[in-house]
Amino acid sequence: MKKIVSVQDISCYGQCSLTVALPILSSYGIETAIMPSAILSTHTSGFKNFTVLDLTEELFKILNHWVDENIKFDAIYTGYIGDVRQFDLVSQAKERILNKNGLLVVDPAMADNGKLYPALNEEIVLGMRKIVAESDITIPNITEACLLLDVPYRETYDLEFAKGLAYNIAQMGPKKVIITGLTVTKGKISVLCYDKENDEYIYNEENICKKSYHGTGDIFSSVLIAHILNGDSINDAIKKSMIFVIDAINKTMDDDSHNYGVKFEQVLNEK
What we know:
This protein has 271 residues and is α/β, with parallel strands linked by helices. 39% of the residues lie in helices and 24% in strands.
């Protein structure tokens, strides 16, 4: 039985981050521990006056306790990080609690649609570059890929531009770079992977959904990691993760009152 720890926030309401990662990974038979980077009353998209409790100091105490208990993991999976001190925590965790040949998977969840998330700044971008360089797999969207490389964001682009982003991020360190949420072909949503070890690109397209929702990137990453840890090829893992997210969106978009996330639970119930 594989063991993973996820380092990201708990949004108490809103179907994203750890409230998505924990049930998804567990449902795939993976023992899942958490390092909550912060507790938010809601996620930051569409809600006003949300509360935030930073847990950075507690994370280092958790890490030290786990080291004392000789607790080890097959993977570390990071998501939203709101305090620059937590990048050092991730580096320490890789050295101290990750099994030999274990995976560090970094979802650099910091931006979308050409903009950083609220309350994040350039220091977060610099820190994210550091842990992406240490990762085995990184899963940015197009905005995050541009920020990691310090290149201007484009609203329109072709596949060659996306390939260039993936290739250049791989030169920073990760073995696999998976860029999500691409719109290379009209009416299609796509994911591009550059596998540095085999020097190959893997590209998958699906029909675009009519609506977009917060948290779908977290769902994609969680399902992807689950399939990888369970032995699927990277291509199969990407395809299955795309289908999962699309199914979750399709189950949600007829419910106008449910605009803060997707009904991923219904997809889990059917898998």
